[in-house]
Amino acid sequence: MDVRQLTGDDLELIARAEEAIDANADVEGGVHTVGAAVCDATGHIHVGVNVYHFTGGSCAELVALGSARTSGARELTAIVAVGDSGRGVKTPCGRDRQVLAEEKATADAASSIAG
């Protein structure tokens, strides 16, 4: 895996994901615990939070991808997910990695970049 230093754009994307979960998190141990942000080719950032359900629910990354798509974004350049309560950048789960692969996404995963 190639590792590179985070850029200002990467840090902004992380900050937007943190803002999304900070504004929408439940009480500790709640159902909304992860925020995500994706950047499209025009530089617009789309955000989402996870939607927990006992059957599995949707990951924050998938919600953010859906938000980007419904806003007209077709090419994504970066994606990141962060945990609530300052838990930092999270690695995409297997389902998210599979979706990104099937969508033929060219987006960098900031968690992979950050290590």
Features:
alpha+beta; 115 residues; single chain; disordered C terminus; five-stranded mixed sheet; 5 strands
Structure description:
It is a single chain. This protein has 115 residues and is an alpha+beta fold. The protein is 37% helix and 22% strand. The protein has four helices and five strands. It has helices at residues 8-24, 60-70, 94-102, 110-114, and strands at residues 34-40, 45-49, 76-83, 88-90, 108-109. Strands 1, 2, 3, 4 and 5 form a five-stranded mixed β-sheet that branches. Strand 1 and strand 2 form a beta hairpin. It is globular and about 35 Å long. 35% of the residues are buried.
Indicate the proportion of strand residues: 15-25%
Overall geometry: globular
Rg, nearest Å:
13 Å
**N- and C-termini, Cα separation:** 9 Å
Q: Supply the helix-strand structural class.
A: alpha+beta
Number of helices: 4
Number of strands: 5
Summarize the structure.
The chain is an alpha+beta fold and 115 residues long.
Strand and helix layout:
Blueprint: H1 8-24, E1 34-40, E2 45-49, H2 60-70, E3 76-83, E4 88-90, H3 94-102, E5 108-109, H4 110-114
Parallel strand pairs: 3-5
Antiparallel strand pairs: 1-2, 1-3, 3-4
